[in-house]
Design goal:
The chain is 45% helix and 15% strand. With 569 residues, it is α/β, with parallel strands linked by helices. It has four domains: 227 residues; 54 residues, no CATH class; 87 residues, no CATH class; 149 residues, Trna Endonuclease, Chain: A, domain 1. Helix 6 packs parallel to helix 7 and helix 20 packs antiparallel against helix 21. The two termini are 49 Å apart. This is AAA-ATPase-like domain-containing protein. It comes from Tepiditoga spiralis. Pfam families: AAA-ATPase_like, PDDEXK_9.
């Protein structure tokens, strides 16, 4: 059995040390056959971008020609080699992990990365090029290198690979917007660096492949670097990164994991589509490998659905929403309200409509709300769901919905007049699943509602209560939580499916809300009757789909008060 390559970005190590490898090498041929030589390719965090660049590096590097048949053995590209195989000097930069505390420290780290990688390149290919480490301008360093390389009159050209081109810039966007604009302006050191790369493509840089997450930095550099093509939403590259379902099935087969686990993984990690005409959705590859690695170790599903190494990156959703507030939203007076409304829409419906993805960002003007939606797409918080002439962006899977919910709860905490103890709520959810006791959870939710202001309740509806309850329920690792779960006869407001056999109960909750000003005893009794009838109508389907004892709960809220709580037998 092969080892799980979780977290590995070294192609040679994977191929020579008995790690499992999903063959993506056919895309080397596809990219080489494209008319574009200078390509930008964006994908969400932890989608295999660094491994892909390392694969390209090993394939095109003249120094790896003698190892080609060893490390590419039995892969697609070994059987279908391209004309440019093993024909380049590979120059690589990686701009992740740079210090963004100040402009000076960022520039120092950026310059150090450039100097280090150029020095490594010179030594690797044994070239007669001299670099002066006293040069503090990255563009000057690169120009000095390119001019000397040109003078060598080598037949071998450079293939330039840049990983995480925008990592440091994304750190600046939400909190230091002026600094971001400064480094990509005409006199900024990042803009100048890319201008030198552009100059190099006229002589020694033959091909270029750059990865990142968001297009904002690319668009900000455009006037100084207008030679590249953003191929992120190209149909034929939809499945280049991430895993298809058939690839995930092959992985499960390799590790002798039952196919019934596939449904868990599909629910949690699948759903990404990067072109509206794509025929297949893809899984987040890092999440899949995390799940397999944990499952192999524990022989059961990992307690945390989300890999914590990924969660820390994805939780930067706050930064993205903050960007809309900092830059401002066009035609809207209150940016915070606009962002809050978008978050509510996405959480309550799982999707949002968009005319088309933003083609170019301009931070000198206020953002359109579609700009924010487009960024959510590029960062992996939304994915394409196309229907006819209308493009919808939707939450791709359970993992991302959980991150949205956690962000929503953070917003609730900031609005609350008193402290909200999330730990007590988690204990109350566990009591529901283990003891079948809903009372503690109901009490905690009622307590949260009472801590919100009157202003928060001016626009409250049943959907808002449901969203709040869902966002707390999804915190539990013991069950999957689904909102508006479709069954014969309608949709269950909230359904909890146990993730482990030792969990005694599944649960469903039918929820009704009455505004305080609309309350009458007649309305109240009608809501109770309606909720009970709905649960009874769902009974046949419920018994088929839920494995084990089921708690069926009715909750009726009047304003902030939970006025009715009952279990339906």
């Amino acid at each position: 059995m092969k080892k799980v390559p979780y977290g590995l970005q070294n192609f040679e190590k994977i191929r020579t040390e008995n790690f499992y490898y999903v063959d993506k090498t056919k895309y080397i041929e596809i990219i080489e056959d494209m008319p574009e030589s200078y390509i930008f390719f964006l994908r969400p965090r932890k989608f295999g971008k660094s491994l892909w660049l390392d694969t390209m590096s090993k394939y095109y590097d003249v120094k790896y020609s003698d190892k080609f048949d060893t490390i590419f053995k039995d892969l697609y590209i070994q059987k279908h080699p391209t004309p440019k195989k093993s024909s380049y000097h590979i120059l690589e930069f990686n701009f992740s992990g740079l210090n963004t505390d100040s402009k000076e420290e960022l520039k120092f780290d950026f310059n150090s990365e450039v100097f280090e990688k150029l020095s490594s390149f010179i030594n690797r290919y044994n070239l007669n090029i001299k670099l002066n480490n006293s040069i503090k301008e990255p563009s000057t360093l690169l120009r000095t290198f390119i001019n000397q390389y040109k003078e060598l009159n080598l037949k071998t050209k450079i293939y330039l690979l840049i990983d995480e081109y925008d990592h440091f810039a994304n750190e600046l966007l939400s909190f230091k917007l002026d600094e971001f604009k400064n480094i990509v302006s005409k006199t900024g050191f990042v803009r100048k660096f890319y201008e030198v790369i552009k100059e190099g493509t006229r002589s020694v840089i033959d091909r270029l492949f750059i990865t990142g997450v968001a297009p904002i930095t690319l668009d900000s550099l455009t006037s100084g670097f207008n030679i590249s093509k953003n191929m992120s939403t190209t149909l034929e590259l939809n499945e280049m990164m991430g895993f298809t379902e058939s690839e995930v099935k092959d992985i499960l087969k390799e590790y002798q994991i039952n196919d019934d686990i596939l449904q868990d993984m599909k629910f949690s990690y699948n759903g990404y589509m990067f072109n509206e005409r794509a025929s297949e959705k893809v899984y987040n590859s890092d999440m899949v490998l995390y799940f397999i690695s944990e499952y192999n170790r524990e022989k059961r599903k990992p307690k945390d659905v989300i890999d914590m190494n990924i969660a820390s990156d994805y939780k930067k959703i706050q930064n993205l929403f903050k960007l809309g507030e900092v830059v401002g939203i066009n035609n809207i007076d209150n940016e915070k309200e606009a962002i809050g409304n978008l978050l509510n829409e996405i959480l309550m419906t799982d999707k949002t409509e968009i005319e088309e993805l933003t083609r170019a960002f301009n931070l000198e003007r206020k953002m359109e709300i579609d700009d924010v939606k487009t960024l959510l797409f590029y960062l992996g918080f939304l994915t394409i769901e196309s229907k006819g002439f209308v493009m919808n962006l939707k939450i791709p899977n359970y993992s991302i919905k959980k991150i949205y919910s956690e962000y929503f709860l953070e917003m609730i905490k900031t609005r609350a007049k008193n402290y909200i103890d999330t730990g007590k709520i988690k204990i109350a959810i566990r009591k529901l699943l283990v003891d079948g006791n809903i009372n503690s959870l109901a009490s905690e939710i009622e307590s949260v509602l009472k801590k919100l202001s009157d202003r928060d309740f001016q626009s409250f509806s049943e959907k808002h209560i449901k969203m709040l309850l869902f966002s707390y329920l999804i915190l539990t690792p013991w069950a999957y939580v689904k909102s508006e779960y479709p069954v014969e006869g309608g949709y269950i407001d909230l359904a909890m499916f146990k993730r482990y056999e030792e969990v005694p109960y599944n649960a469903i909750i039918e929820l009704k809300y009455i505004k305080k000003k609309d309350y009458t005893e007649k309305v109240y009794q009608e809501k109770i009757k309606e909720a009970v009838n709905q649960i009874k109508r769902y009974e046949k389907t419920i018994n088929k789909e839920f494995n084990g004892p089921l708690k069926k709960v009715v909750m009726i809220f009047v304003g902030r008060e939970l006025k009715h709580l009952d279990e339906v037998e």
